[in-house]
Amino acid sequence: MRTVNMHEAKTHLSMLVEKAVAQGESFVIAKAGKPMVRVIPVDRAEEPKPRIGFMKGRIAIPADFAARNAEEIENLFAGQP
């Protein structure tokens, strides 16, 4: 992935965007060597991020899960060993 500095990005933004769209590649704009933003073509799909519930149907949680070790947990919260 190409990295360009802020000045170069301001000067050549049209060219950089055209190149990104034509080649389907993203680029990073940096300020003082520190990456600030990543520019990606709109039509390029990003990787889907894992969501809550992604393991639904793959694992089984026992019905008595919440009641297991309840007394021990209560004692730990009460400061008792």
Helix content: 25-40%
Strand order of the largest sheet: 1-2-3
Q: Total number of β-strand segments?
A: 3
Backbone CA Rg? 25 Å
The CATH architecture assignment of the domain at 2-39 turns out to be 3-Layer(aba) Sandwich
Question: For the record, what CATH class of the domain at 2-39 applies?
Answer: Alpha Beta
The pLDDT mean sits at 87
CATH fold category name of the domain at 2-39: YefM-like fold
Intertermini distance: 55 Å
User: Structural class of the secondary structure composition?
Assistant: alpha+beta
One letter per element, helices H and strands E, the order comes to: EHHEEH
Q: Tell me about the biggest sheet? A: 3 strands, mixed
Number of helices: 3
Shape: elongated
Model regions low in confidence, pLDDT < 50 over at least 5 residues:
none
Q: What amount of the residues lies in strands?
A: 15-25%
Write the layout of secondary structure elements.
Layout (H helix, E strand, L loop, with lengths): L1 E4 H6 L1 H11 L3 E5 L2 E6 L30 H8 L4
In words, what does this structure look like?
- By secondary structure, the protein is an alpha+beta fold.
- The protein has a domain of 38 residues: YefM-like fold.
- The protein is built from 3 helices and 3 strands.
- The chain has a 3-stranded mixed sheet.
- The longest helix is centred in the first third of the chain and has 11 residues.
- The mean pLDDT is 87.
